[in-house]
Structures are given as structure tokens and as C-alpha cells.
Amino acid sequence: MSGAGYGSMSRRELLMMIGAAAGSSVAYRAMASLDLVAESDYKGPIKLEGDPKGASVLILGAGLAGLVAALELRKAGYKVQVLEYNQRVGGRNWTLRGGDSYTELGGFEQKCEFDPGLYLNPGPWRLPYHHNAILDYCKRLGVVLESFNQVNYNAYLHSAKAFGGKPQRYRHIQADFNGGVAELMAKSTKQKKLDQLVSKEDREILLEALKGWGALGNDYRYSIGHESSERRGYDQDPNGGTIGKPVPSTPMSIDEILKSGLWRYLVHGHIYEFQTTLFQPVGGMDMISKAFAKEVGDLVRFNCKVTAIKQDGQKVTATYVDTKTGGTPTQVSADWCLCTIPASVLSQIDLDVSAPMHDAINALPYEASIKVGLQAKRRFWEQDEGIYGGVSFTDLPNNMIGYPNTGYFGSGKGVLLGAYTFGPNAFEFTALPPEERVKKAIEFGAQIHPQYKDEIENGIAVGWHRVPWILGCAGAWTEEKRKQHYNNICQIDGRVLLAGEHVSYIPAWQEGAITSSLNAISRLHQRVVNG
Amino acid sequence: MRAPNRNKEKLMTRILGGARLMLCAGLVLGGAGQTAQAVDHSFSSGFKFQERDGEALYHGICQGCHMPQGQGAAGAGAYPALAGNPRLASKIYPAFMVINGKKAMPSFAGALDDDQVAAVANYVRSHFGNQYTDQVTPAEVKALRPKAPPAASE
Predict the structure, then answer these.
(1) Between B19, B30, B77, which is nearest A14 by CB?
(2) In DSSP terms, which residues pair with A278 in a beta bridge?
(3) Cβ-Cβ contacts under 8 Å for A449 (sequence gap 6 or more)
(4) Residue B113 lies in a domain
(5) Strands A56-60 and A336-339
(6) Can you tell me the distance from the alpha carbon of A233 to that of B108, in angstroms, rounded to the nearest whole number?
(7) Model confidence over A302-338: pLDDT tens digits?
(8) B75-100 residue pLDDT tens
(9) What's the confidence (pLDDT) of residue A32?
(10) Region A222-231: what's the mean pLDDT?
């Protein structure tokens, strides 16, 4: 890894392509040979024992990190107030619905025209089963979850350069890749080419395993018939009665599969963060922040643009401007400050912290990412193609198409995730006016679903570098930056400490924001209680 | 069309050591037959930008943040204007920023080659009301690139 920024080709980009958020823990873990890569080790509700004796905490930012801290610190007896730039809580925990309007930097305004009940989550959209902290908060706050379908065997894998641009069913590529590889391995084993590598006893076991794994016949070949069709599906499925006899389908050769390049998408459901089961909140991701708002909404002051954070031996003072009324800047003080403002914005604020923490904040730009939501007049992917939820992948710049994991078989409209892109294409999408992004997403998607041309009726596009309150999607840590700065960004610096996904080893995930916040307030509480 | 370029495949295998990615065969996008308009825009394939001239690079990448007329933008944080920005008096400054990044500005060192960086730096210095005539060269850009990271020695 050169760590030189965008374009340094690496395993990281593979993971970006398959849907791991740029710089996510997946990418990090996959490429890192570092020790101490932390999983979420959430062990149940935090216990802040001991009397804070009236200590006050000013929380900057009402995203999930700030909301969690507000909830837990107030419960522990702190005096808490929260300043938030937006008119709503949640930060990247955000959902766009019909009637919403969104104005990005540059003044480009979009009105969301989705039908009632339909939505786009421009930020996070899924919760892995092992992200225990966010799942526990959902449980405690009564947020109803439903399953998020990551891998759909009937969705498509698509390359403009393979199979004449015709999308292929995931199950075909998956079965034929496994079958083809298993056949090659079995052949090598039988031809004694693996004798140096596999003991005699293991050879028989290996052959048996390859047969089962790859759906090989008794001849150890992967060929047309019952075994292979039980994986890839039939040309005519088994049915009842006089017309019940199945017609098996014909596998593609391993040569064709390899050359297509589509095998590279098969990994996605095997990655820890995308393994079954994943969840999503019923009704949109922001149901989580709305549930938090019911608990701590009274603590939040909205429309506050923080311009300075100063500290001395006694207190922390933040200066903010009301973005709606303007006027003279206001100051607010507290004993401590938990700052969850993204590093991309915080680096531009007059901030009293030590040089090492400044260096850490200044070293962290944010990744590019875009999402486009497209409303279709009907759920053609279900009705015409039997695709219920999940994701199709493509090497076109829209990168993927996500199908709604809810409202199956509905006769009304539906909203697709028409693009979810990282890297250079995300910059290029962001550079377009929003309506052009939507147009491009339709143009690319139509190469996979020709129905787009008749069925897509409106869309909305969020390019994260244009989002006014964050300037990117998530902290762009590299291995080198971690080594140099991560420890410093985690410190209690006088009376200020930071939290958010950028202060975690689960960047871009809500779990990172929450666990970072819990860790920060635990350390702060120790300091307050123990002096 | 199905068979990827074998040599390119081999090359990439070497470069990526098994973690191979997209085959970067030229992907023609943008809808065949659509003619260029004010916002004509191409998309790169793979993980390097393929725009070559300064104007295409600016409008393909930079304007996402610095805006179409180089006017910058401000929200909770800001993107500086390039129009009338006195820092651009130095021809090295914009090239340095593109290579190394600073604060919210990411480094593009891995995604743009020296020619591209020079082209876009010279473009911003001669547009949006900026009228600097001296040009940064690709060789000067090359000298701005960080040395190989010492971390590799660990």
C-alpha cells in the first residue's frame, strides 16, 4: 500500500467496488497485517458509575455519536447540551422521503418526489448482525428492524465487457465458478499433481469435498444435469403433474467465467460485514435518530455553526453562529467538550488542542461517495425478473443497483438505489449537477434493466463531497495515517475529546460512531469521577 | 469483446499481487451518439482518472467541491474559491495541493499522473479570472510527490 490517496490500486478498491464503504473496517482489516484490529466489543449497556458532581458536558454534533453521549451522560447525572449544525438530528443517519428538499453546496437544490412510504438512505443503509452496539440501541429505543438482503442469487452480475454486456444471474456465475474450480482441482488431484501438497488419506477426502462443494458428478466433472442445476437453477424448473419434468440448464465453461471477470463480485457475501444476517430499520435509517430524538431532543440546539472551540484550565467555550438568524456569535461553556464534528470540518474551526491532535485532525480528508435513488412506476425487478431485495453489481460507474428489501410484491411504485459509487467515479458523479447524476444513473442502469427507460420517473442524488456539513462520506484513514495519528486523535486533550466514526477502527459504519462515543464518555467519566 | 487483454491482465496480476481488480479496458460510456453539451462528462474506468486535459480534469473532478466557476462554497466547513485566489500566484501551490492534499482536500497523487496534475494546475491558474502565464511542468510536479513511505521498512 502506498497510502498515497486515490488511485493507489489495492485490495481496498476491490472492497470499495463490492460495496464496503471506502476505507471501511473491511478494507482496513483485509489489507492490514497490523495487530489489535478491534471488532466491536460492545458488551451491553454502558454503566457510568459514580457521581459526576454536577459536571457539565458540551456535545458538538447530534449524529449518532453525539446522541448516544447525550443519552448516557444525562442518565449518569451530567449537565448536557448539544449544538447541531442541521435542523435535524442524525447526521449521516439520514433518510430522504417525498416532500423533503435538500440543498447541497453550490446551492443546488433537489426536491424528493418519492411516493409516501418510499425513501432513500443516502448514508448508511445496513446493520451487520455483529454490530452489537447499534443493534442494542435499536432494541432499547424500540426501533423495529427487518432483514437487509445483501446477497441475492437471482440478482445480476454485469460487465459491459463480458457476455456481450448481458447481465448474468449471480447463481449462474457462482455455481459455475465453484463447479469449474472444483473440477480443475479434482482433475489435478486425480492426476497426482497435488501429491506433494496433500497426503494420500486427505486426497480421497479432498475429492469428496470438491464433489460436494462444486456440484460435481460421479465422474468428478461439472456438467449439465441434476447436480449442477440444483445450484444454478434449471431451464425449466421441476413442476407438478404431467408437465413436471425438469429441464436442466447448461453450465458455462470455467474459461468463460474467468475471462468475464464477474467472479470478482462473488466475494461480497463472504466478507464479515456483509454476511447474513444484516438488518435495516423499517421505514428508513433515520428511524434510529428519530428514536434518539425522543429521548434527548430537548438537549439539542439546532442551526448552530460552530466557529471556535477554546479551553483553559477551568472550562471549554464554544462559539457558534445561528445559521438562520445570523447576528452576533454566541458563546456557550461547559466543564468538558465531546466534539463529534467531522475532521474535514473541524480542521477549519479555531480549535484549542495540542499539536498532535491538530495534526491528526488535519491529516484526515473524507472519502468520495455518491448515492442515487430512483423511483420506478412499478416494481419491475420483482414482477419481470424475480429479484426480491439484494444487490446487482456492475462495472459501469453506477457500481451497483440495490433493490428495496421491504414492501415485496407491492403493486405500487418502488425506489431503487440506482448508484452507490466510490473512488474516481464518485468524484466524477459529484462534479455533475444533481439532475445529471440522476440521468447518468438511469442511463447506466438501463443497460442492466431495459425497463428503466419506461419505468423510472424521478430520482435524487447525494454526492457526499457536496454535503454542506461534512464534505465527504467518511474519514479516509490509511495504514500509515493510523500509525501516525490514530492514538493522538483518541486522547482527552485538556477538556476536549473527539468521537465519531473517524475515531474508530470501524470507519464509515454507525457502529464505529457509537462505540467511539461510548469509549470516549467512559474515559471522560473515569477522569471526572477520579479527578 | 469477451476476452480481456491478456498482457494487461498479466501486468495487473503483477502489480496487484493477486488482488486483481477491474480490467481497465477502455469503457465507452456516456451513451453512444450523445453529443457534447455544457456538462458533457466522461467517467473513468478503474481507479485512476482518465481525463487528460485541464478543462476535462477540472470539470470531471475539482468542480465537485470548488464549483463550476471556481467560486468555492461554504457550509459547516468551506471549500476555498479558486477564482481570484492569491495563493495561485505560485505555480507550485495548486500542484502541491493536488499531490499532497491538505485538511479536507484529499491527495490525488495515486489517481493522477504528473501530466494530469500539471494540466489541471495550469488550467485553474488561467481561468476563473486568474491570468497567470507561467506554467508548472510535469517534471516539477514529479518533484512534489512524496518519497516512498518509510513505513515499508518496518
Answers:
(1) B19
(2) A128, A148
(3) A380, A381, A385, A401
(4) yes
(5) parallel
(6) 45
(7) 999 999 999 999 999 999 999 999 989 999 999 999 9
(8) 999 999 999 999 999 999 999 999 99
(9) 37
(10) 98
Q: Has residue B44 been placed in a domain?
A: no
Rounded CA separation A424/B100 (Å):
17
The percent of residues above 70 in pLDDT, for chain B, comes to 69
Query: Could you tell me the CA-to-CA distances from A199 to A188, A207, A420, A495 in Å, in that order?
Result: 14, 12, 46, 63
Number of structural domains chain B divides into: 1
Q: Residue A244 is which amino acid?
A: G
CATH architecture of A170-260: Up-down Bundle (1.20)
Q: Which CATH class is domain A100-154+276-281+367-466?
A: alpha beta
Percent of the residues in chain A that have a pLDDT greater than 90, as a whole number: 91
Distance in angstroms (rounded) separating the CA atoms of residues B32 and A160: 13
User: Which domain does B91 fall in, by range?
Assistant: 52-147
Q: Is A32 on the interface with B (CB under 8 A)?
A: no
Give a yes or no: residue B43 inside a domain.
Answer: no
**Strand intervals (E) in A348-422:** 350-351, 369-376, 390-394, 400-403, 414-422
**A424 interaction partners in chain B (CB closer than 8 Å):** 43-44, 46-49, 61, 111
Taking domain A51-86+302-364+477-530, whether its CATH number is 3.40.50.300 is answered by no
CA atoms within 13 A on the CB side of A488: 17
Residue A436: burial class (beta carbons within 10 Å; 0-12, 13-18, 19+): middle
Q: Per-domain residue ranges for chain A?
A: 51-86+302-364+477-530, 100-154+276-281+367-466, 170-260
Whether A489 contacts A498, CB under 8 Å: yes
What cell was used for A487?
492514538
Of the CA atoms within 13 Å of residue A224, those in its CB half-sphere come to 8
Its pTM stands at 0.89
The pLDDT of residue B147: 82
Alpha carbon distance A321, B75 (integer Å): 12
Phi, psi of A329 (to 5 degrees): -60, 145
Interface test with A, best of B15, B65, B108, B114 (most A CBs within 10 A): B65
Cβ contact (<8 Å) for A444 and B77? Answer: no
CATH of the domain at B56: 1.10.760.10
| Mean pLDDT calculated for residue range A100-127 | 98
Phi, psi of A497, deg, nearest 5 = -140, 155
| C-alpha cell recorded at residue A176 | 459455475
**Residue A248 pLDDT greater than 50, yes or no:** yes
Q: Indicate whether B99 belongs to any domain.
A: yes
Of A342, A397, A427, the CB nearest to B29: A397
